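Appendix B.2, paired examples.
Example (i):
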Amino acid sequence: MEYTVKKLGELAGVSSRTLRYYDEIDILKPARINSSGYRIYGEQEVDRLQQILFYKELGVDLEQIKNILDDPDFNVKTALADHREKLVAKREQLGRLIANVDKTIAVKEGRSTMADKEKFEGFKKKMIEENEQKYGEEIREKYGEDTVNQSNAKLQNMTKEEFEQANTLAEEIHIVLAEALKTGDPAGKKAQKAAQLHKQWLMYYWSEYSKDGHAGLGDMYTADERFKAYYDKDQAGTAEFFREAIYVFTGKKK
């Protein structure tokens, strides 16, 4: 069966404007253009749109999705199995969140009680699950299963005070890094202070410190668009500057 932009949009629940944009960026091209100038989509395009929407639901950006789908080794059956696994995990996470909300409502209505520790434990579990969904595959590939599992366990065992200290450090890193960026010197005192604070922050999540691991994170901050966007949100070039500062701090050569 074939579809126009309008019909495919109605079928998939996306706007015609979105489909035109997908055509412009070459992530979803129509099968053909008919004599009237309309984009026409066939079965292959429908299947590809399904994959795009699956990956978008999992938080993957369009550039990464395009790279995945254009990979000659891409296998639809394997991808669907992977999507299913992640969606089941997401469903389980949503189930726990719904249960937590229900209990919170019950507390507010005076029908139940919830200790602060219980609220905090639920928050930490949610944070771990979200990190796994967003970055789990990349982090596990780079650092290994044991390292990531140990980091998750350390976070799960973190006290509320430790968690607050880690968040305060994270905020301080951004402030110092912004000041360091103005100097333009990744080897300068301010930049090196940011790298030192970053090491302190890492130790709230890592079981042991590694210069190679620290430098590897600096690489990820520039290589992965999600990390890069996080650091560059206030000033473009921050992620690359921070990587260079971490290189100096850890003694890594370019």
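Example (ii):
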Amino acid sequence: MNRRRAARPSVRRPVQRPQLRPVAAGLQRTAGYAWRLLVLALALYVVLVMLGRLVLPVVAVFVALVVTSVLRPVADLLARRLPRVPAVAVTVLGAVLLVAGVLALIGESVASEWDSLVNEFRGGVGRIERWLEGAPFHVRPASAAQLQNKLSSYLSSHRASLINTAVNQAGKVVEIATGAFLSLFCSIFFIHSGDRMWSWVQRQLPAGSRGTVGRAGQAAWRTFAGYTRGIGIVAASNAVLVGIALLVLRVPLVLPLVALEFFATLIPLIGSPIAMVIAAVVALAARGPVTAVIVLGLIVVIGQIEGHVLHPLVMSWAVRIHPVVVALSVIAGGILAGVIGAVVAVPLVSVVWAVVCELREPRTGRPAEAGRPVGPVG
């Protein structure tokens, strides 16, 4: 008798898979910050590419904001006694006439001193050659003559290319004139009704974000205007000091060198020393090596006055960033966008930092839209 064994139901054992270790919380947090930073870097790259394609309007608007920060208080003061439109017209026209007068004075100074400057520079080149032939350089006269011959031959052989380059760069003059006109055009409207323009921009935003954007705009404009006025005061002080020193030393081209010092100081840390080096070269050719050394010594003196007196008194209430950050911003801006980047870098970093600090603090006071609209151009 065949007995069949009862079939036992087969029981499947669960497949044991290796358990994955949970990702550490610190690594998760780091990865989250990493991909967010990558997205921000990509967005920043896109913005920089777009700004690189729109250099002329961007620079024109920046210059218009600078002009507005300087002239808006004057227009507001005149508007107390005059209607708004005449007050703005008088302010802008007076500023244009002032700039034109300074440029005309510089041109007249150069033209009146041109003949004497040519003679002084010719004699100065001879003094420089004799100075280089003596101690401690001991340059041989033949080497100096050979260098002059090489320079003359280079200019003669490349005269056509130099002329073509100059002709091609003539288009820059038209571009600069267009940018200046656009800046003047924008600044007139910013000075006249910048507050209403900013209020209109706020009304186009969602109601929940208007207060935040208003606070950010107020902080940005307060910092930008403070920086612009502060750097203008510092630049004017440096220019006055340099002008007095050059007059005492009887260095020619005082007015052009003073103007160069004023505009060069707009580039923090490096602008003023570069302008003083150019002044030292002029002093070397016109007055000799002793005067040039004295002018070079002014770099240290003016740098100390600017760093320990003017900046703490004038700029501390507007810009609160470390000098290391200023230096890195200037260098990074110069690498990315040349001279324009070096000029724009510090106010841009200052504005961004002011907005970040403002938005981190709890909201106090009444909303921006509840009172008089105050914004980036108001």
